[in-house]
Amino acid sequence: MLLTNAPPGTGPQFLHGHTETLYAHTEQMGWAILNDGFRMFLSPEVPSLLKGAARGFVERLLEPLGLQRQDIRHWVIHPGGPKIVKGVGRALDLKEQDRAPALEVLRTHGNCSSGTVLLVLQHVMNEVRPQPGEYGVMLGFGPGLTLEGMVLRF
């Protein structure tokens, strides 16, 4: 959850969150904590696994609010890599413009781990400029293999 001291109505409203873990694929992504720091391991299968899980995950994220993918105007996708953004985009039938914020942040900042999705949100807020009342979905992916999602209203 994001907290701010900004006046009400000046940022996105968090409507709903959802998490799923693909337990059959826990070995595909993870962190090892070593004496000299953290080491991430990432299987080349991750983009394909996320592509296969994304559509159903987003449908389950939106269902409690009575929304469908077509209701979402803004997609804030964690850019774990171009293959992940492309695969998730294909699974969700997203247009190039829907994937562009994630790919632009990946190009300019790289993958900064979990916080990168917030850079994508910042890009959407500053460059795309959602209109009041439009819906957005934030998607993040992590160890476990875990999918996290939030529905926002701008």
From TrEMBL:
GO molecular function, one term: acyltransferase activity, transferring groups other than amino-acyl groups
Residue ranges of domain Chalcone/stilbene synthase C-terminal in the record: 32-153
Keywords assigned by UniProt, alphabetized: Transferase
Keyword Ligase in record: no
PANTHER family the record matches: HYDROXYMETHYLGLUTARYL-COA SYNTHASE (PTHR11877), TYPE III POLYKETIDE SYNTHASE A (PTHR11877:SF46)
Family according to the record: Belongs to the thiolase-like superfamily. Chalcone/stilbene synthases family.
Name of the featured protein: Chalcone/stilbene synthase C-terminal domain-containing protein
Source species: Myxococcus xanthus
